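Revision sheet: structure tokens.
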Amino acid sequence: MVGALVHQLTKGVSPEVLKREGLGEYYTDHGVSVYPQSAAGVPFTAAYLQVKGDPITDLTEDLAAEQKARSTYEYLIDLADDPDVIDVLRFLRQREIVHFQRFGEALRTVQDKLAQRTFYMNNVNMNNNMQ
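Predicted:
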């Protein structure tokens, strides 16, 4: 979404304007195409995705990622001056809040399930058929 927003904002902007606004190096490497990278210029990599295969660990990581995304949108809102851009960023920030809430609910469900006493059921009919 942010990439699409940046694309819309830079569409038709001349290379001279991009250079004057501090985007000359980015333009040199990527033109006006969207290239996922951090504000410091570090490209996105799958190494950012953390999974362990443990539901509690993975959901906790998801919760942290949503909070980091929310705070990033807040920082972008602080930097923006275009009301239309701010509206999009507020929508995206709210979406991260909802995602955080849903992951929290999923974590509570997993924790509740793991806290239940294990119950094994003996199927009498199946045992009789196995003899």
